[in-house]
Amino acid sequence: MTDIKTFRELQSEATEWRRYLHENPELDYRLENTARYVAEKLASFGINHIETRIAETGLVALIQGKGGVGPTIGLRADMDALPIVEASNKPWSSKVPGNMHACGHDGHTAMLLGAAKHLATTRNFKGTVALIFQPAEEVELPSGALKMVQEGIMDRFGISKVFGMHITPGVDIGKFSICPGPIMGSQDDFDIIVKGKGGHAAHPHRTVDPVVIGAQIVLGLQALVSRRTDPLKSLVVSITKLNAAQAYNVIPDRVEISGTVRTLEPTLRDFAELEIPAVARGIAQGFGADIEFKYMRSVPATVNHPEETKTAMSAARKLVGDSCVNDSPRVSMGGEDFSYMLEARPGAYILVGNGPTAACHNPAFDFDDDALPYGIGYWVKLVEEILGREADVCLAER
Question: Where does Mn(2+) bind (predicted)?
Fold first, then answer.
């Protein structure tokens, strides 16, 4: 049986991959260099079934076990960076001005590459491992996971179960967190245009001031959470953009308000889409104005399937022990497009500690390379957990 020492032997090489990716970040679907680099590494491991140009720059590689025919499980890593100016001051900081790996996707990719090298060498399982390298996780509509699912990767490669992973700053390296059911929230976005009557700021009585009306709408929307929903259920409505006039002495004709909705409950997505415009329109009309409204559904909640979560827990515990696996973590309201893959197939999404680093999406963030062996090891243990026992039976029969 493999233990963490086995995977630490891969750390030096995986660190080189990770830092190369960190120095050369690419955005959304424009991952030409990243995808080429990943494909070349996979081929160097002796993996001969690599399909590229899936969802533009995504790829899927297959590793067949030596135990013979069996099920196919998918392991997913996201590859894209963010449009952020890096401030980590590391020797391997981004060489691309305005782009950086601020969410650990460089580490996710390196961990799956490390697992690929180990699995391609040993192949001690029955069935097939599908390595899914996904573009555009940070893109909302359509995101990379949605596009890969829409292009039929689950049926095309016969994937029966699918698993994802993400690092977590602030959690000790070597610790994992996972739970059945929702583990991350859905994400929807909305735009409100308040249409009033502009004029001179010295004569507000001659206007229908959309700035004042917009301020009332911002406050009014908070009551949807505090007074219109069950306090034991999670709903977040955050206003993130306000655009009005550009001069001190002008009351504008319109104000633009934008925000995001996060929840774990599908019914609360429906509630928000219906009630946000109702509240905004009611307030606006009370002042003699009106609104335009647009609601954009993005990723659904990331919901772990019960049986697959048990399997993922077992794999993590066999790697690091029971005490290092938190089975009741705080659920995040951040969005994750792996949710689309979990809607298409049963599976589970696990969080792995990244130590006391800056938060994700922070300019000072950097992946901690000491976490690499744990991500690699988890993937291998997961394959052993699902496909390894079937291989043992098959090889014993031979």
Answer: 103, 105, 138, 166, 361
